[in-house]
Structures are given as C-alpha cells and as structure tokens.
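Might you be able to review the protein record set out just below?
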Amino acid sequence: MFILTIAGKEHEGAYSVHDDDGDKILYIFEQEDDAIRYAMMLEDQDYPEMHVLEVEDRVVLATCENHGYNYAVITPNDIVIPPPIKEDDPI
C-alpha cells in the first residue's frame, strides 16, 4: 500500500483530505501507479512536490485503528480527485 507525503517532509505526516464534516481522511492507495497519478494531480494544483511512500498494509491500518485516524483505502476501481486548495489549508 502507498501513502503520500510532502517531499523532504516524510517524517512530518501523511497527506489527508477533509470530508464534509471537516474530519481528516488519510488516503491509502493499493496501487503505486494510482498514488503517483494522484500526486501529479496535487502538484498540478500547486501543492508542493509529493513523495509516494510504500507502507506495509497491516502496519498502516493497525496504526490508524489504534489511534482513531480516519482512512480510506483507494482501490484501482476508485476515482479520486484532489479537492481545490483553500487559502487556510496548511500545506
């Protein structure tokens, strides 16, 4: 599985989106190619350069569950489009 981080800041956290309630959702991609495409879409919207980081599926899912983090596993059948950047988004 794969997550996205800001290049050079891999130890500062992973990329997440906000749902309609304002909660953060960590995107966990099953396929590296999908993570790369999503990272490219982010960069096209003037996000900083993104880094695709491979993570062990059991570890990342257990970490999310143990700490109460919301997450979504993005399968090859899912279509996800980055939300537009808002002025108050911390990047």
Q: What stands out?
A: The first strand starts at residue 2 and ends at 6.
